[in-house]
Amino acid sequence: MAGDSVGTFTQALAALKRHGSGLLVTGAAAQETHLAACRRLLGDAGDDRQRLVVLTDGVPGVDDRTSDDAARVIDRRPATRGATAAASPTATDGPSDLVTLEREIVAAIESIEAEAGSLDPAELRVCLDSLRTIVDGHDQREVEQFLAGVLDAVRAVDGMCHVHFPVERDSEATRRFADLFDATIEVQLPASGGDVEQCWHLHDPDISTNWLPL
To answer: What residue ranges of the chain have pLDDT lower than 50?
Structure first.
């Protein structure tokens, strides 16, 4: 990016942290790319955040995402639940329709806010993994309503919600839902090897970064 674009991007990113945001994390690379992005977006355990992790796919659980034992978990994975989910007071069992799942997420956010007294901008971090499972089981309108409800609840407390969608950014599936989000983040492993890379695409203003180390 040119110097002016860098400044605009930095200001826009700061605004997303102040006012709440929804981030769509894309990329069909290895699972480790999404886990690396998730750890970065949830933040370090010692940084005074409130974390909510919603698991809907047969993917690694909260232990792979954060070392924060206080993170809340809504576990809707179809596979056998892990020990962490079973031990969590907020973990739940069995499949759920999207209306019920949305209500559970909103209730968890309200509970977190009530216990905290008030939430600072970007203090609440929410992870939803994975949109692919939800898309496979519901029509587009249902998914849009679900995402809009969840993102509205997060933005209402100036939080940051990232949603994993392990498909390519330029795919038709991604384009269906990208407009609901403030930015799309691509993640990948470089062809030459090395650490995971990220590329941000802000939707307003329309700015994209180069590939950067995650």
So the answer is: 80-95
**What is the pLDDT at residue 22?**
97
Domain that holds residue 55: 21-213
- Sign of the CA dihedral with 158 first, then 161, 127, and 5 last: negative
How many domains are contained in the chain? 1
Residue 91 lies in a domain: yes
Give the count of alpha carbons within 13 A of 174, CB side only: 20
| Per-position DSSP letters for 78-115, written without gaps between them | SSPPPHHHHH-TT---S---HHHHHHHHHHHHHHHHHH
Q: What is the pLDDT of residue 187?
A: 94
**Residue 12 and residue 170 in contact, taking contact as beta carbons nearer than 8 Å:** no
CATH code, domain with 144: 3.40.50.300
